[in-house]
From TrEMBL, chain A:
Keyword field contains Transit peptide: no
Annotated Gene Ontology cellular component terms: cytoplasm
Gene3D superfamilies per record: 1.20.1050.10, Glutaredoxin
Enzyme class: transferase
Family classification: Belongs to the GST superfamily. HSP26 family.
Name by which UniProt lists this protein: Probable glutathione S-transferase
EC number: 2.5.1.18
Pfam families (UniProt xref): GST_C, GST_N
GO-annotated molecular function: glutathione transferase activity
Source organism per UniProt: Daucus carota subsp. sativus
BP GO terms, sorted: glutathione metabolic process
Keywords carried by this UniProt record: Transferase
UniProtKB/TrEMBL annotation, chain B:
Subcellular localization: Cytoplasm, Cytosol
Any GO CC annotation of this UniProt entry: cytosol
Protein's UniProt name: Glutathione S-transferase
Record function comment: Is involved in the conjugation of reduced glutathione to a wide number of exogenous and endogenous hydrophobic electrophiles.
Listed GO MF terms: glutathione transferase activity
Transmembrane segments: none
BP GO annotations: glutathione metabolic process; toxin catabolic process
A Pfam family: GST_N
KW Cytoplasm (keyword) present: yes
Keyword terms: Cytoplasm, Detoxification, Transferase
Stored Gene3D superfamilies: 1.20.1050.10, Glutaredoxin
Broad enzyme group: transferase
Length: 215, 231
C-alpha cells in the first residue's frame, strides 16, 4: 500500500510544528491540511472525536493524536532515518520526562509569566527562572538535547526557539537572559537557524498580533 | 538482580504508584517498596525527584525515574526477556499511549471532581462526565481487546495498567456517593474487564481493598479540610 501521510494542523500551533519537523527529519512526504480552529472541519472531528484538537497525523487513513504520541509513532514507523529517541531505556525515560515537563509545567508557566490575565506575573516569572535552570542543566556538554544532532527532546522544546521571543516582546518581560542561560540561549539560536526548519516558522508579525489579542 | 537494586518510592493508596508495582510484577522483578508518610516528603524523594517532588519514583541502581507512565515504559524497555507491556505494533502503541494520556489529563481529574463537588447539581454533573468518559473507554476497550480479555489482548498491558490502577478509587467513589460508575448498562465489557484485571497475578497483591481505601479516603478528606499547620 502506498504510504499516505496527512497532517492536520493550524498555522501557529507549536505542537503541530513538532510533527512537521519530525516528518522533515525522517524525509517523509506528507500533505498538510490547515485547520481553522474557530471553525473545525468535519474531518478533524472525525479523526479526533475525543479532543477535537490538532495536530492529527493520518497514516494510510488511520489517525494518531497527541503530539508526543505522534512523535513516538513516527520514530517507530520510519525507523531507518534519523532516530528521534535514544536507544538506551534511561535516555528514553529522561527524554519523555522532560518533554512532559515542557508541556505540563514550563509552557503554562511561561504563558502565565507573559500573557497571563490578572494572575501573579511576578511569581510566575520567578518560577519560570527556577524551572529554566533545569533545562539549562540538560544542555551541559551538549549542542542539542539529543546530543550532536537534534532528537525528540529538541522537537519537544522547539517551541521555545520562536515563541519565547514573541511572548517577551508582547509582554515586555525578559525571561531568558543570555548571561543567565547561555546554553539555552545558544540552543534556541541554533535550533531556529537549522536549515531543515527554515520554512517552518510561523509568521512573526501574525504571532505578535495573535498574542496581543490573547485573552 | 538483587531487590536492593530496584526500589519504588510510593504509597499503597496511590494509583500511580500501583502502575510501577504492577509493571515490576509482570516482569517478575523484585523490588523494595519504600513508603512515604502522608503529609511529609522523605529526603530520598526530594533528592530523586527534585523537579516535582512526587511519587512514584523508580530507583534502579543509581538512576531515578519519575512520572508513572514514563516508569512503566522504562520497565518494559529494560526487562525485555519477560512479557511485553506495550503492544508490539506502532499503531497499537500509539492508541495505548493516547488513551493513557487521556486518562491522566481528562478522565482521572474528572473523577476527582466528584469528591470535590459542592452541592447535588455539581456532583451530578461531575458523575455524568466520568460516565461519558467510561463510554469512550468501553469503545476503546472493544477496539483494543479485539475479543480478548484485556486492552493488551490475552495478557494485561499498558492501557490495562493505566486504567486499572484507578479501580480502587473508582470503587471508593461509587461507595461514598452511592453511584455506579462502571455499569452493565453502558460499559458491560469494562465490568468484566475490571474483575479480571483485579484478579490478575500481577495486580491482586497491590490493589488495595476497597474498604481499607474507603477508610483512608476519610482520613485524607479530614486532613484536607483541617486548618493548615504553619510550615
Amino acid at each position: 500500500m502506498a504510504n499516505e501521510v496527512k497532517l492536520l494542523r493550524s498555522w501557529s500551533s507549536p505542537f503541530a510544528l513538532r510533527i512537521v519537523w519530525a516528518l522533515k527529519l525522517k524525509g517523509v512526504e506528507f500533505e498538510t491540511i490547515f485547520e481553522d480552529l474557530a471553525n473545525k472541519s468535519s474531518l478533524l472531528l472525525q479523526y479526533n472525536p475525543v479532543h477535537k484538537k490538532i495536530p492529527v497525523l493520518v497514516h494510510n487513513g488511520k489517525p494518531v493524536c497527541e503530539s508526543l504520541v505522534i512523535l513516538e509513532y513516527i520514530d517507530e514507523t520510519w525507523n531507518a532515518a534519523h532516530p528521534l529517541l535514544p536507544k538506551d531505556p534511561f535516555g528514553r525515560a529522561e527524554a519523555r520526562f522532560w518533554a512532559k515537563f515542557s508541556d505540563d509545567k514550563l509552557m503554562p508557566l511561561i504563558k502565565k509569566a507573559t500573557i497571563g490575565q490578572g494572575e501573579d506575573k511576578e511569581e510566575a516569572r520567578v518560577q519560570t527562572a527556577e524551572n529554566l535552570k533545569y533545562v539549562e542543566e540538560l544542555l551541559k556538554g551538549k549542542k542539542f538535547f539529543g546530543g550532536e544532532t537534534i532528537g525528540y527532546l529538541d522537537l519537544a522544546f522547539g517551541w521555545m526557539a520562536y515563541l519565547i521571543n514573541v511572548l517577551e516582546e508582547v509582554s515586555g518581560a525578559t525571561l531568558i537572559k543570555k548571561e543567565e542561560f547561555p546554553l539555552l540561549s545558544k540552543w534556541m539560536e541554533n535550533f531556529y537557524e537549522l536549515p531543515e526548519f527554515k520554512e517552518s516558522w510561523p509568521d512573526r508579525d501574525r504571532l505578535i498580533t495573535k498574542f496581543k489579542n490573547y485573552g | 538482580m538483587s531487590s536492593s537494586e530496584v526500589k519504588v518510592l510510593g504509597a499503597w493508596a496511590s494509583p500511580f504508584v500501583m502502575r510501577a508495582r504492577i509493571s515490576l510484577n509482570i516482569k517478575s522483578v523484585d523490588y523494595e517498596f519504600l513508603q512515604e508518610n502522608l503529609g511529609s516528603k522523605s529526603e530520598l524523594l526530594l533528592k530523586s525527584n527534585p523537579v516535582h517532588k512526587k511519587i512514584p519514583v523508580l530507583i534502579h541502581g543509581d538512576k531515578a525515574i519519575s512520572e508513572s507512565l514514563v516508569i512503566v515504559q522504562y520497565i518494559d524497555e529494560v526487562w525485555t526477556s519477560s512479557e511485553s507491556i506495550l503492544p508490539s505494533d506502532p499503531y497499537d502503541r500509539a492508541i495505548a499511549r493516547f488513551w493513557a494520556a487521556y486518562l491522566d489529563e481528562k478522565w482521572f481529574p474528572s473523577m476527582s471532581k466528584i469528591a470535590r463537588a459542592r452541592g447535588e447539581e455539581e456532583k451530578k454533573a461531575a458523575i455524568k462526565l466520568v460516565q461519558e468518559g467510561l463510554v469512550l473507554l468501553e469503545d476503546a476497550y472493544t477496539k483494543c481487546s479485539k475479543g480478548k480479555m484485556f486492552f493488551g489482548g490475552e495478557k494485561i498491558g499498558f492501557l490495562d495498567i493505566a486504567l486499572g490502577c484507578f479501580l480502587g478509587w473508582l470503587r471508593v467513589t461509587e461507595k461514598a456517593h452511592k453511584v455506579k460508575l462502571i455499569d452493565e448498562a453502558y460499559s458491560p465489557g469494562l465490568v468484566k474487564w475490571a474483575e479480571n484485571f483485579c484478579a490478575d497475578a500481577a495486580v491482586k497483591d497491590v490493589m488495595p481493598e476497597t474498604d481499607k481505601l474507603y477508610e483512608f479516603s476519610k482520613v485524607l478528606m479530614a486532613k484536607m479540610r483541617a486548618p493548615q499547620k504553619p510550615a
